[in-house]
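Table S7 (text form). Paired inputs.
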Amino acid sequence: MQLMLSGVTYAYPSASEPIINNVTITFPCGWTALLGDNGCGKTTLARIACGQIAPDAGSVTRGLLCAYVPQDADEPPADLADFALDYGREAHLLRVAFRIADDMPWRFHELSFGERKKLQVAVALWSRPDVLVADEPTNHLDADARAELAAALSRFRGIGILVSHDRELVDLLAGRCASFEPGGIVVRPGGFTAACEQAEHERAAVAAERADARRELARLAAEKDARAHAAARADARRSKRHLDPRDRDAKSRIDLAVFTGKDGHAGRLSSQMDARLAAARQRLDAARVHKRYDGDLWVDSAPSPRKVVLHVPATEIACGPAGTLTVPELWLANTDHVGVIGPNGAGKSTLLAHLRTLLAEDLPVLDVPQELAPEARDAAVERVSGLGPAERGRVLSSVAQLNSDPDRILEGGRTSPGELRKLLLAEGALRHPELIVMDEPTNHLDLHSTEALERALAAYPGALVLVSHDRAFLSACTTRTWVVRDGRVREL
């Protein structure tokens, strides 16, 4: 069993160029990871593969049962109620594996995004599809849930298509990686680490070939120049213009050289060099090393003049269907960088929602939530499109520093969740924020963008509150930690 895409092309209605152009790729049984920067077309290709999008040209294998786990967790899966009502062995094992309580499917919109993601994946596996597409499945998940997800997906025996920037998950699951690169999609064996090592070997080989081709071109150019001079001297020797009309011996020697072709040999060799030079130039052009330009996002801001930007009185707030979250008295100084950690469903986002109600109205804040509703996403794109030329230029320049193409990010229908997050960050930076609040900031971001964001937030001079399951990211960006666990908040 395999899934094949042949000559597939797709362009979004508002786009000037197709995002997928004449792609042919085969997905066999086992997991294939799609790798590439935000906005390169991974999700589009995955949705075409499972029949959610019809390509403008090309063909896709049909007749296979497909299940798609989307990036966002806004809407419940279509078969969620059937899964909730199934008490058979398969459904029971999935509920145990993902720690899904009986009431969770019925209150989907009350759950944390991590809990919703677990339900999405469980329902997809429960449908026993031939093709399973998992698009950023570890978004929002804590360490335990990631381990549960990896174990469940590793047991899948159909055709798996994994879209992920989670290097550990790709290494664990993928038997091959399809990388979106400037020259097209390149398929390499192994997981993330093996594919990247192979790509580096190929890049080094191409760089060596290019250096060798450049040296060969320089050598041939010098040789052609020398032969051209030799041919010019031969032409001068064959000329009788400057001979004494009575010097018959000299005229005879010139006639003999022309007759035997000996004196025209240098000229013919010079002409032959043109073909050799053209071949050398083609070799140099073919050995092209694609460069990437990873920059840094700079948040133009300064600490708030007020020494304390947030005071949280001790309180209890509603959390979950019938629980509460006990919050001690908390203070956030104007240069504090705080990381908020805890398992899925513990109340981290609930805590952030409470903090937002306590912020002073005149405090410049950059607030990026976990997910945006579709109408809010469209509004963000329209808002940036409506900026003046100077401000729009600054926003798109910041987006470019985060490794996305600014020329296409405002094309609406094709703006990926990762690109949208970059757009919100860049737009918010225009307000010179004195406080940045971000809930799962690395969700949807590719590796290079995550590294650029990490550098920017670590150097940010104002106050910062980050919710994340990425401990390495928090370690680089924050100096204090608030833990949300077992119905209460405490500071480490």
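Next pair, protein 2 of 2.
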Amino acid sequence: MRASEAPVRRQVLGLDGLRGLAALYVVLFHCWLYAFPGYPDSSAPRVLDVLMFGRIAVVFFLVLSGFSLAISPARHGWRSGGVAQFLRRRAWRILPPYWAALALSLAISLFVVPASHYGPPDGSSLLVYGLVLQDVFFAPTPNGAFWSIGVEAELYLLFPLVLLVRRRFSAAAAVACVTLPVVVRGLLAPGSNPVEGDNWLAPHLAPVFVAGVVGAGIVVASERVRRLPWGWFAVLAALPVLALGFVQGSVWTVRHYFWIDLAIAPAMTMLIAAVATGQPAFLVRLLTTRPLQRLGDFSYSLYLIHLPIVLVVIRRVAPHFVAPGLHTFCFTLLLGLPVSVLTAWLFSQIFELPFKRNRSWKSLMAQSRPSTTVPEEQNQPPVPEATPSRGKSPSAPVT
């Protein structure tokens, strides 16, 4: 077999581990958020301030989602294989576990503990969240983590257009088309810092998604480009943002997420590119360990269902056993965190992984039926596929 005919690796090593760590951080953020009142000026001990940046973890999910989705198009001249096919595959991958998590969240929010200060969900919640329109229309949320799923759904509609601009023009043109309008909007806002509400966040977050899309080009670039120290580039790009946040404080950082999101996206893109090109080696080894690989396998499920579990522990269980504040936080880590992970794994076995392993109802039903004969295909040597796995990004957490 000639080098040009060699099979392309189906999955880029390390990306699932990154998803798993990001999802785990979001769980820790919500344990912190609801155990201590007053966000962003939280009553938590200052040493726990490192847990208050859940929004940054979701931004990382969006960058990683754009990067992962663009790997296959980058290998094929920045062509997606058809808009309709892309959207169908995204819907097949994202919606079944999302709808199952929506049903679970509605039940818990209606009968156990409300998911937000707006009160329990109502009929508009079912309509808006069922159609994944929560970034466009407001309704009382059944699950506070679902906001990013609406954002990501809108960004999927943008994805084919970004590929077209990247293919016809350049990476710089693709980034500029979505970033310049966002920057102009920010500069024209009162105080040059737009106030963000509960929805209409997709236009603001489109540049971070596109940063991931164009960053995927590094995976298929020349060997000289691939061997560049992308990990160190990521550190250098992140240092000014981290230094500004340290000087201004965590509360200022949270209140200026509009700009922080845009500023940190290049560093995130280069970090993902570093892992995708196998560097630094110790980090890739860590991310490909079995526990992180397994965590990454069901990271979307963990993102979808952890928050109702955390809220039940903090607001219904913990008050019977421990005092508010730090004791509740520690209690939630000991009970809510492992229960969230275990429940997410079980949830993924039913509602997520079957849709990752099968790409149609016919295939799904065939797999679920017991077979007494060995299919003829199993007697043949496996044929490697040329497209990368389509895991979440939650979204998606969506992600």
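Confidence is low (pLDDT under 50) at residues 1-9, 372-396.
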